[in-house]
Amino acid sequence: MRFAMPTLVLSFSIVGLLVAQSPPVPAKAKDESAKATGAPDSKPPEKAPAGQSKPPEPAKAESPVSKTEKSANRFSPTSRPERLVLTLLEHPQSRMGLSWRTDATVSTGLAQVGPALDSGYAMKTHAEKGTGGFRSLKARTETVEAGGEKANYHKVTIEELEPGRLYAYRAGDGRNWSEWHQFRPARTGSRPFRFVYFGDAQNDVLDLWSRVIRQADRFRPDFMIHAGDLVNRGENDSDWGEWHAAGGWIHATVPGLPTPGNHEYSGSISLPGLARKARLTPHWNAQFNLPANGAPGLEGTCYYLDYQNTRFISLNTNEKDRFEAQAAWLDSVLGANHCRWTIVTFHHPVYSSARKRDNAEVRAFFRPIMEKYKVDLVLQGHDHSYGRSGLMAGAESADGSDAATRGDTVYVVSVSGPKMYDVEDRAWMDVRGGQTQLFQVIDVSADAIKYEAYTATGVRFDAFEIRREGGRNRLVQPGELPASESSAPVLWLAAALVVLLPAGVIAFRASRNKLA
Ligand SMILES: [Fe+2]
Question: What is the average per-residue pLDDT within 350-366?
Answer without folding.
Answer: 97
